[in-house]
Specification:
The structure holds two protein chains of two kinds. By secondary structure, chain A is mainly alpha-helical. Chain A has nine helices and one strand. Chain B is α+β, with helices and mostly antiparallel strands. Chain B has three helices and eight strands; from the N terminus they run H-E-E-H-E-E-H-E-E-E-E. Classes of the chains: A mainly alpha, B alpha+beta.
Chain lengths: 161, 124
């Protein structure tokens, strides 16, 4: 059961933060943080080690809270995939301290906590995320995994007349 | 347990019993039971709705339906459900079920019967 849940968790895409201006406008002249953009691309393509490396560099040059929050969130997602759960959790928490309404960070935090078997905290993180983004598929998927870890659904016939 | 609690429990049991009580098997269009009741030969269990699991909802759902003279399931109606989410899976499961037809005076007859399902979430 736990193996199946872990496999399912690994299949869940990390929730990367919404691309910031600097992430989406690599070709625009002016102050850019292409490291964050390239890091996000690497994470999206599944190259987590490279994504984390580039994002860590980008974080050093992040000029706005938005960029810093996104960077920490993406580090959380990447490190979760690399199974560095404690460190991932720290980055998620930092992302949330920068932006407490970042549902991506709640989603990643919940994913990390599930992998750490901290079920109640994971459910709490999902619920906070859903309060911000009620129809997030990713959050609902994580909630499904959490519920399947907690419950065994049963349907039985009570009577037949 | 105190007396008021016991009384409340008893009343709840009676209420639930009456709410979900199903009528006996009877020949369609009459109150008479058939001599030989339909026998379930292919059973399908309703799927637990994902939304209900997410919201941690359990409960009961009763559906009544007709078994035709050929043993087919028809006219499935959910007569009682503690939550709307249970309706669809119950109807779907019952529609997939197969029965032997009821018999009366040696002949197959259409019969009506009801089935109650309990949806519960057991902690692992």
């Amino acid at each position: 059961m736990m193996f199946a849940v872990r496999t399912l968790l690994l299949l869940l895409l990390p929730t990367l933060a919404v691309a910031t201006e600097s992430m989406t406008s690599k070709s625009i002249i002016g102050p850019q943080n292409t490291f964050l953009a390239d890091g996000a691309s690497a994470l999206m393509s599944g190259d987590y080690a490279e994504g984390v490396r580039l994002t860590e560099i980008g974080l050093r040059f992040a000029g706005s809270n938005r960029d810093r929050g996104a960077a920490h969130n993406n580090l959380c997602a990447g490190l979760m995939k690399m199974d560095q759960l404690e460190l991932a959790l720290e980055h998620c928490d930092t992302a949330l301290s920068i932006n407490p309404n970042d549902w991506h960070a709640y989603s990643n935090r919940a994913g990390v906590l599930l992998q750490m078997d901290r079920l109640e905290e994971a459910e709490e993180a999902v619920e906070k995320g859903l309060a911000i983004r009620p129809n997030s598929r990713t959050l609902l998927k994580i909630l499904d995994v959490a519920r399947s870890m907690r419950y065994r659904p049963q349907v039985s016939v009570v009577d037949e007349r | 347990m105190t007396f008021p609690c016991r009384l409340a429990g008893l009343l709840l049991t009676i209420w639930l019993g009456s709410t979900f009580a199903s009528p006996e098997v009877r020949i369609l269009g009459s109150d008479q039971p058939p001599e030989i009741a339909p026998v379930l030969v292919a059973s399908h269990t309703p799927e637990y709705p994902r939304e209900a699991i997410r919201a941690e909802i359990g409960g009961l759902a009763t559906a009544c339906f007709t078994i035709t003279r050929k043993g087919r399931v028809r006219d499935v109606v959910v007569v009682q459900s503690s939550n709307e989410l249970f309706r669809k899976p119950v109807i779907k499961a019952i529609r997939k079920s197969r029965y032997t037809p009821a018999k009366h005076n040696g002949k197959p007859v259409a019969a009506q019967l009801c089935r109650t399902y309990r949806f519960s979430l057991e902690e692992r």
